[in-house]
Write a structure and sequence with these properties.
Elements (H helix, E strand, L loop, with lengths): L5 H18 L5 H12 L5 H8 L3 H11 L13 E6 L2 E9 L1 H14 L7 H4 L25
Antiparallel strand pairs: 1-2
Helix pairs in contact: 1-5, 2-4, 3-4
Length: about 150
């Protein structure tokens, strides 16, 4: 068994952070952590997100707004997630990924696996969209066996 190469692991983290920076050069790490938590536990509520991240619900709501299509004050958001009313409890908002968010998850998985994907703008399609068999299935950001 060979010793882990920590330089490679750090380089992978840097590539992942750079991918977030492509969306917004000034993206706060809290937005990235919110996105990753939603990707791993899609369908959780804003309250659940706040609890998992150890932040106030108002902060979770602000993070979701920035990651959604429309940020506060009419400013464009990142369109990575969407919050919808829970049909069973109307005051509760359920958060899920948009197609653009799913594509980012696919890109992050490829970066972690040491692969690169074609730019969706160049290929004209959302290459490698994540497909789940159940809507409540969490998205694991670890490389899949096929991508190793």
């Amino acid at each position: 068994m060979t010793a882990p190469r920590h330089g490679d692991e750090i380089a992978t983290v840097v590539r992942v952070l750079e991918e977030f920076r492509r969306f917004d050069p000034d993206m706060p790490i809290q937005y990235a952590l919110s996105f990753l938590t939603i990707a791993q536990h899609e369908g959780l509520s804003m309250g659940d997100l706040a609890q998992r991240l150890g932040i106030a619900q108002s902060s979770a709501s602000r993070n979701i707004a920035a990651l959604s299509r429309w940020h506060s004050f009419g400013k464009n958001g990142h369109d990575l997630v969407e919050a919808r009313e829970d049909p069973r409890e109307r005051r509760r908002k359920i958060v899920s990924l948009t197609p653009r968010g799913r594509h980012l998850v696919t890109t992050l998985r490829a970066l972690i696996a040491g692969q690169t994907l074609p730019d969706p703008c160049e290929s004209g399609a959302m290459a490698g969209t994540v497909v789940r068999t159940r809507p409540d299935a969490p998205i694991d950001l670890a490389p899949t066996p096929a991508s190793r």
